[in-house]
Amino acid sequence: MPELPEVETVVRALRRQLVGQTVTCLTLHRPDIVRPPTADLAHNLVGHSFLAIRRRGKRILLLLDHAILCIHLGMTGQLTLAPPTAPHKPHTHLVAGLSNATQLRFRDPRRFGSVRLLPSIESASQDLGPEPLNLSATSLSRLLATTRRAIKSALLDQSLVAGLGNIYADESLFAARIHPLTPANRLSPMQIRQLNQSIKRVLRRAIRHGGSSIRDYISVNGTSGRFQDLHAVYARTGQPCTCCHTPIARVIVSSRSTHFCPRCQPVSC
DNA sequence: GTCCATGTTCTTTA
DNA sequence: CTAAAGAACATGGA
User: Fold this and answer.
1) DSSP 3-state assignment of A40?
2) Contact flag, residue A200 CB and nucleic strand C, below 7 A
3) Residues 104-143, chain A: which have Cβ under 7 A from strand C?
4) Binning pLDDT at 50, 70 and 90, where does residue A85 land?
5) How far apart are CA A220 and CA A79, in angstroms?
6) What is the Cα–Cα distance from A180 to A153, expressed in whole angstroms?
7) What is the mean pLDDT of residues A150-156?
8) Residue from A115, A110, A70, A75 nearest A91 by CA
9) CB within 8 A of A241, min separation 6: which ones?
10) Whole-model pTM?
11) Most-buried pick from A32, A189, A231, A260 (CB within 10 A)?
12) How far apart are CA A214 and CA A134, in angstroms?
């Protein structure tokens, strides 16, 4: 489940190896990962160079001279660099040959991922809230005041804040000691400051550890992240809380598994 | 064979 | 009308 830290890890690795490379050829094994379906990827990529690489929320932005290639990893997407001689893993949907004789490969068994051609950097932020790493408590407070949904549900909403998914929403709420079902607009100013700080700390620490390799996530050179070993609540149902040893509980919020410590994250009223 | 994992988008409900 | 909840998508693994 690539979320902000996993995407950031991929982007940093790609930046070192991909910037300056020119696309020499393109093979699209599954054209249905390209959106819109009418976009002519080969025409727009072959002969063009990658000028820069950025991340926006969970989106990977490869800047070309005339457009932006926007890649979303969905749930199981992998973006790797490999020599042409390396065998293709199943579900490899796109292969771009590069001028340094390596290949940029995109595989995605579940095909929730996508590859888009965008006209401008502004269009890459369409429907996305601010970056959580540059967010002030005041801004977060204003955003959360607009909804009465459970805070867990609000944190998953990319149009509110961009980049958190199920793992880091749960980990951030645990670090802030906030119950995931608390209505977003009922958090105290103190809780919001705590949450804002916790989100940043959790995300920075996860980035430092190369993200979480839960199921399919790997970085550009095929290496796994290490942050899954440091999760306090995610996928730890029934195991003792790292802080108070109470068994971690699991509830469903917004039809997603939500993990929390009933003692460290009490319902606040 | 059943159930579960989840990011996004579309549809339905309140 | 709007906000929120729910369904659907896809596929491998337990």
Assistant:
1) coil
2) no
3) 109-112
4) very high
5) 6
6) 8
7) 95
8) A110
9) A232, A233, A247, A248, A261, A263, A264
10) 0.95
11) A260
12) 26
